[in-house]
Every structure is written in C-alpha cells, then in structure tokens.
Amino acid sequence: MSWPKLGIAAMLRDIRAYPPWAAEMEAAGFDLLGYGDTQNLLPEAHVALTAMALATQRVRFAPTVSNPITRHPAVVASAFVALQQLSSGRAVFAIGSGDSSVRNIGERPARVDEMEEWCRAFADLVAGRVASWRGRQMALEFETTPVPLWISAEGPRMLHLAGQLADGVMLGSGISDEVVLDHRERVRLGAESVGRTLADLELWWITRPFFAASEEAAWNDVAYSLAAQANHAFRFTFEGKHVPVEHEAGLRRLMEGYRSDLHHNAERGGHNGALVTENGLTEFLGRRFFLGGSADDIASRIDHLGSLGVDGLLLAGTLPDPIAYTRRIARELLPRRDAR
Amino acid sequence: MSLDPTSSSRPRFGTGIAVRDLKRYPSWLATAEQAGFDLLTTGDSQSLWAEPFVSMTLAAQLTTRPDLAITVSNPMTRHPAIVASASLALQQLSGGRFRYGISSGDSALRNIGTRPAKVEEIESYVLAVQALCRGEQADWGGKRFGVHWHQAPTPVWIAAEGPRTQELAGRIADGVILSNCLAKEMREVAFENIRRGCAAAGRRLEDLEIWYMCNLVPAKSEAEGIDSVKAILGGTANHVYRFHLEGKGLPQELRHRIEELKRRYDSRHHASPATAAQNAALVEELGLVEFLAPLGTIAGPPERLVERLRDVVESGARNLIFSQFVEDEFGFMNLLAREVLPAVRS
Q1: Tens digit of pLDDT for each residue in A299-324?
Q2: Which of A15, A72, A143 is closest, CB to CB, to B93?
C-alpha cells in the first residue's frame, strides 16, 4: 500500500525564517511546501514563495491557497511564470474562493462562476494564449511556461469545476471516509464531463496532525484550529458536506462568532477555540478534520487514507512554535513513510 | 532660483531592467552591485516581463548594499494590502532597502484593457499602503483594515509627470521620480508643482528624495545612440503627456505632434526597443527626436557620457536612474563602472 505524498506548511511572521525552513523541510523529504496567501496575517505570498524557491532545489511549492480577489490574473500569471522559470518547473498555483485573505480586507469570497472565469484566464495566460477576463482580452507577451493549476474545493459545484479544469484539487472539507470518497467521486464526475479522467488530476487533502496521548487530547489542544477549519469548510452551505443535522446550529453559531483576524492564531486562540467547545463540536470536528493521537495512530490513519485514493496530504502546522512542530512532523512521520 | 533638494549630496546612480529571464537575473544583480550602483530597480508591467515582487525578492536576497525599488507600479492590479504586505516582507529580507514606486499605470494597464488611475485614486491607494506599513488601520474602497504581522518604515515614491500628480507627491510621498527632466528648465516646472504640494502639507521640497529617469546609451556617436532609443523616447512621451499637455513645459508648436504620437503609439512594445520599430518610426516621422532626446537621454561614447552627466549633475539632478535599453546589459554596467561613473563621481 502506498502512502500519499506529504506536503508541509507553516505560518511564520518573519519571512527571513522561510528560506532555512524550506531547505530543512526539503532535506527532510517532503514533496510539497505550502504557503498561506493571507496578506494581512503573513508576509505576502509571492515574496515568500520566491524566497522558498531560491532556497530549495527539488521540492515543489504552492500557495495553499490563493484567491481571485486581491490580484489581477495577469499579475499572478506573470509571477508564476517567473517562479516556474526560477525553480525549473517546481511551482504549482493553488487557488480557492478566498477566506482570511478576503475577510480581513472586508471583501466577500468569490462565487464559483467568478472562480471559473479567473482560473480559465490564468490557465490561458501561463500557456501563452490570449485570455479573456471581465470582458477584456489580454496575454503575456514574454516567454511563458506551463504552471499547474490546483483548485481548492469544498462544495459540490467547486468540486465539479475542479474536475473539469484543474490539474489538481486541494480538499479541505475533512478526511473522514465518507467525505474522501464522496469528494473523489464528485471530482471524477467533473473530469469525465469534459472527457478527462481522475488520473489527470492530483487530489491533495489538507489536514493537521497533532501528537498527543489520545485523539481527544489532541482535539482539545487545538480547538482554535478546528474552528478555522469549520469556518472555512461550511461557510457557504451544509449541502453535500456530510454535516449531521444535530451540529448545524452549533456550526452556524461558530461561523457567526468566528474572528478572521485571529485565523489559526495559536497565541490568541481562546476566542475561536471556545466557539468549538461551547457548541459541542469538538469530537465531530476533530475526527472530521485532524490526524490526532500518537505517531503510530497518525501513521495508521495516513495508511488508510492512501487506500482510499488520497494522492497527497498537506500537513499544516499551526502550533505556537511552527518550526519545532513541523520538525516533529518530519521526525515522527517521514521515517514511518520511508519504512513502508 | 530653485535648487534641487539633493544638490549638496554626492551623486547617486541607479539602474534597472525589465526582468524576462529569472535564471539570468542573479548574474545581472551581482554585476550591478559590483559596478557600484546605489539603487537597483525594475518596472511593474506584468504582461511584458516578470512580476516585480518576484524579481525584487531575488534582489533583496542576492544583494547586500544597494537600495531596491519598483519604478513604478500602479494602484489598479493589486489590493493595497497585498502591496503593503509584500513591501514589508521585502523590508525584512533586505534590511530596509526597499522603496515602493507608484504612478497611475501605463503599459501594465493598457495591456489588460484597464484605464490608468485618477490622481485621487493614486492618493487614496498611497495613503492606504503608507498606513498599513506603519501598522495603522487603512481606509480604502469604503473598507477599513490593517496588516497585522509586521510594521516597518517603507518609503513610497510617486512617479509624477503632470502638475496634479507632482503636487500630490509633494503633499504625501517620500520620494518623487521625474521623467523628461534632465533639462533644468523642465525641472523648474516640476519643482513648482511639487513645492505647492509640500506647502499644503507643511513640508519642504528637501523632505523628498528626487530621482530622475535617464536613458543612458553608450554608442559610437551621440546620434547613433539616440537613434537606437527612438521608440523609448516615444514611450516616455506617451505617458508623460497622455492625459493632458498643460503645466509640463511643452512648446506650443509641438502640441499637435504629441497628440498624434499618443494616438498611434503601440503599448504592446513598451520598453522593448528590439521589437518596437513601429513606435521608433512614429517618433521619427513626427519630428520629435530633437525635442525629446535631451529631456531624458544621454548618448554617445564614454567621454561624451561623462561630459553630459557632469553637466546634468552639476545643474542639480544628482540622483539618476539609468534605463538599460541596450543589447548587452552586462557590458553596459561594466563600461559604466570602468569608464563613466568614477569620472562623474570625481
């Protein structure tokens, strides 16, 4: 049984820490480096990804994930053609509808049709074709190079769209069996609707491993991060998202009270974490989103996810010391992967 | 008589390129730093060359001494929080050497079918970027927001060609970039406008860092050098005069020719002399070379470059950014380092 590929992401507020961190994670053996595009909370993504590209030689890297609101598609296409040149083909562009990056500037996330138009423009631009966006024609007039486009998808329509036009999908709706199988199927149907197959896409799930004596202990330690996951995954609708009816009201209260300026903020996680515990959502969200327990427990679950057809897992570190935490992930999990 | 605010300081020289090959750019940066330039720049024209925050990140990481600047960006293609966050990241990486230059937008916008920004749009955008970099809340587009991860001094420069933008720069910018101002009489016109803005904000012209764009073209003769950058003369004139002709020192008899240039200029070949034969022919056809060349171009063999640069520096324009509209950028920088810049500095 083959393990999924493993990616790693960390939220560091000093950009000077990223190059050595990226080099260390590459040397440890990760397959992908992720970086959150959330300009109000972290150094801007194009700068950070360039710094990481310069510090590495082998590993792929991606914004996990960008949005279609804060930059013109030609700006992003230009940046990723440049990053692709610089890194000899290791750049991946991943985009979602926008979460903390747009909430923290008072904007709304993009609709599915807006995502589609933006993504098609980006794909045309990096392929050297004339693109159309908001009724205007445009092209990159310097030498372009292909850049894989991954779409972050949680709802049924976005999953279908991703199957139709993306090179990969980032899935943040959870890692329970029913969610994994359902989302894989929806992407497959999207792909086949345009004559593609599931094999044309990489499917990466976003999750967070938390080492603790037990799953339950892990969930309680990181309730603020569970709140972020829930707020993101369920913000538009519960439809098709495998949410038990008894949790819908609690989730609504969580999303109403969620503070995006404290998104994944480990040092000030009390407010968002309480929204999970006070609404009785800890166990549901913990099992749904996170890998928790001992290293052996987590490795067994990753084994299982591989058997369900998960191509990759992006492991995001959000604890107060992200460098130490991502080192621990590398130390605990990569030898177990390599031993299989 | 007006004095250039930097007239008592030593001359400083910057240079920049449109980065189309990221693999080659590290060598360019090393050569530029070695050549002793004080400022390294790139433009923001995403459809024609690499996005500048990518290029500037390389510059921040691969150089140690020169200041770095985007000359210039626009307020239309990125949210100001993106620019503030990117600028702060570059300040961290470079040890505070980054400057963010902005104007209304030229080829970056023409090539995506977007109109240039109005002066009031530049103002609100610059104020937002400045506030965010200071760690304050910004008000922009009817929304209020802040950048929470860092704050650091980040000079914002405005490239200003018209009287209203120059006045705005005097009022709110940390620096000004002037084109077509190598001739003293053109600088006087610009200074009057900038001073008006300074006065409105209780500042002085001396509070601003002023840089002048200059096409420096080594060639066998002055005429040959000017001939090789005729398309660039057209591009600069196209954006200097594109909105209106008032308050810019343009002789009355040239007005209709400039209007014709604006009408027929092709932005797809902006800043690319190798592919811009049509734009070059247009400048020639309209008889504008003689007027435009002295305003922004210094051309000829090394001894002529030294002579003209000394004149310009002594007349008060002491911070010069040299464009590299040449085939061999490395040879250009090495020639300047060897035969031109030391002589001018001395």
Answers
A1: 999 999 999 999 999 998 767 788 99
A2: A15
Mean pLDDT of A87-108: 95
B89/A70 CB distance under 8 A: no
Within-domain flag for A270: no
Task: Residue A72: give its domain's CATH number.
Answer: 3.20.20.30
Residue of A11, A56, A72 best to disrupt the B interface, most CBs of B under 10 A:
A72
Residue-wise pLDDT for A180-236, tens only, equals 999 999 999 999 999 999 999 999 999 989 999 988 888 888 889 899 989 988 988
Residue A316, pLDDT score = 84
Q: Which residue of B has its CA nearest to A262?
A: B148
Q: How many domains does chain A have?
A: 1
Q: What pTM, to 2 d.p., does this model score?
A: 0.92
ipTM of the complex: 0.92
The pLDDT-based confidence of B1 (bands split at 50, 70, 90) is very low
Q: Does residue A23 belong to the interface with chain B, where contact is any CB pair within 8 Å?
A: no
pLDDT digit string, tens, across residues B67-78: 999 999 999 999
Residue B275 — pLDDT band, cuts 50, 70, 90? low
Residues 117-136 of A with CB under 8 A from B: 133, 136
Full residue range of the structural domain in which residue A313 is found: 5-213+291-338
Candidates B28, B47, B68, B129: best to mutate against A (most CBs of A within 10 A) is B47
Residue A224 lies in a domain: no
pLDDT score recorded for residue B101 = 98
Please tell me the CATH code under which domain B12-222+296-345 is placed: 3.20.20.30
Q: Is residue A201 part of a domain?
A: yes
Domain boundary assignment for chain B: 12-222+296-345
A contacts of B152 (beta carbons < 8 Å) = none
In chain A, what residues touch B46 (CB-CB under 8 Å)?
72, 74-75, 77-79, 140
What residues of chain B lie within 8 A of the CB of A15, using their CB?
89, 92-93
* CB pair distance less than 8 Å for A85 and B23: yes
Q: What is the 3-state secondary structure (H, E, C) of chain A?
A: CCCCEEEEEECCCCHHHHHHHHHHHHHHCCCEEEECCCCCCCCCHHHHHHHHHHHCCCCEEEECCECCCCECHHHHHHHHHHHHHHHCCCECEEECCCCHHHHCCCCCCCCHHHHHHHHHHHHHHHCCCCEEECCEEECCCCCCCCCCEEEEECCHHHHHHHHHHCCEEEECCCCCHHHHHHHHHHHHHHHHHCCCCHHHCEEEEEEEEEECCCHHHHHHHCHHHHHHHHHHHCCCCCCCCCCCHHHHHHHHHHHHHCCHHHCCCCCCCHHHHHHHHCCCCHHHHHHHHEEEECHHHHHHHHHHHHHCCCCEEEEEECCCCHHHHHHHHHHHHHHHHHCC
Please check whether residue A183 lies inside any domain of the structure. Answer: yes
Task: Suggest the residue from B29, B148, B267 to mutate for an interface test with chain A (most A CBs closer than 10 A).
Answer: B148
